What does this fold into?
Amino acid sequence: MLINKRKIIRFFCKPKLDKEALEAYFHKLPSEIDINWFRDGKYIIGKIEADGYKFMTQAVSAKEFVEMVNDALFTVYKIPEDYFDALEKRRFYPTKEQFEKLNDASVKKSQANFIKEVELARV
It folds into this structure.
């Protein structure tokens, strides 16, 4: 419930973002991340590696999994929450084939390489 309140507050009271800080946070993120994932019941569980960092996340759907990977990555790289929305359009995404595997419940495990978009989001 707290997360939803924060999103509502940010929607109506958008913080003023510093363009230089946004660029610095964008360039702080790695250019790609490697993910080994598997299904455990209804969950997709991913082991993520990025520039020496290793962490895990989980989700129920493929779309939610991509969101959770990005949220975890932003947290690990200490990107302030105010900048999440500005960087949202430049998050890490799987290829079409990798996303189809995540959506296919018959695929029990696989690996993916999410790549960062190269164009910086506008403030």
Observations:
- Residues 18-116 form one domain.
- The two ends are 27 Å apart (CA to CA).
- The chain has a mean pLDDT of 84.
- The chain has one domain: 18-116.
